[in-house]
Amino acid sequence: MTSSSPEQPEPQPAPEPVDLLRRAAEGDSAALGELLDEHRQRLRRMVRLRLDRRMQARIDPSDVLQEAFIEAAQRLAEYLRDPKMPFSLWLRFLTGQKLLALHRRHLGAEARDAAREVSLFHGALPEASSACLAARLLGKATAPLEAAIRAELKVRVQDALNEMDPLDREVLALRHFEQLSNQETAQVLGISISGASSRYLRALKRLKAVLGPVGGGSDG
């Protein structure tokens, strides 16, 4: 990936067939199940990334998804009357709201600190913490390391993440871990597509400077 190479348009996720959405809204359980299953894994990644570590022993991501899917089934016809966003992002919105409600229920006032929430279609979503991102980056980007070396590297990665602009860090979480497209990322955060792209590349460059010498880097 070089600055001199023109950025290639990335493939966009195919929209859900209108007929499948219509049948699901009319009560076809098989059509609804097919729609929800298509997005289950990506939403599970989102929940695992953003679920507060203090709640991980008590909350199963599957339970969060089940609550979100129940609401999606109840509100699908309403969504189809005025779809303001792609269906995949609407599901993500509902799931994020369920996750945020769980945080506030279990963590109380601590979870209401606006600094720990990020915008989500004029709502909010728990942020992906630097500690969680660092742990996942090391799990994805490096070969097995001795415990002491890994611990030191994790601190360095967390420091790099903490020094980033919060929006850059969120773009990294959306693109690299939730695997949203650049267009989806821009829409979720309310920024331009070019802005989302430049912020992602800037975050990767910062991390590559930390992870590169260890092996594997942070590309991809």
Name some characteristics of this structure.
disordered C terminus, 64% helix, globular, 2 domains, Arc Repressor Mutant, subunit A, single chain, Rna Polymerase Sigma Factor, Chain: A, mainly alpha, 220 residues
Write a concise synopsis of the structure shown.
With 220 residues, the protein is mainly α. It has helices spanning 18-25, 29-50, 61-81, 87-107, 130-141, 147-163, 166-177, 182-189, 193-211, and strands at residues 117-120, 123-126.
Rg over CA atoms, rounded to whole Å, is: 18 Å
Instruction: Estimate the strand proportion.
Output: under 5%
Distance between the termini: 10 Å
Biggest sheet statistics: 2 strands, antiparallel
- Strands, count: 2
Give a structural overview.
- With 220 residues, the protein is mainly α.
- The protein has 2 domains: 16-127, RNA polymerase sigma factor, region 2, helix turn helix motif (Rna Polymerase Sigma Factor, Chain: A, Orthogonal Bundle), CATH 1.10.1740; 128-220, Arc Repressor Mutant, subunit A, CATH 1.10.10.
- 64% of the residues lie in helices and 4% in strands.
- The chain is built from 9 helices and 2 strands.
- It has a two-stranded antiparallel sheet with strand order 1-2.
- α7 (166-177) packs across α8.
- The longest helix has 22 residues, at 29-50.
- The radius of gyration is 18 Å and the shape is globular.
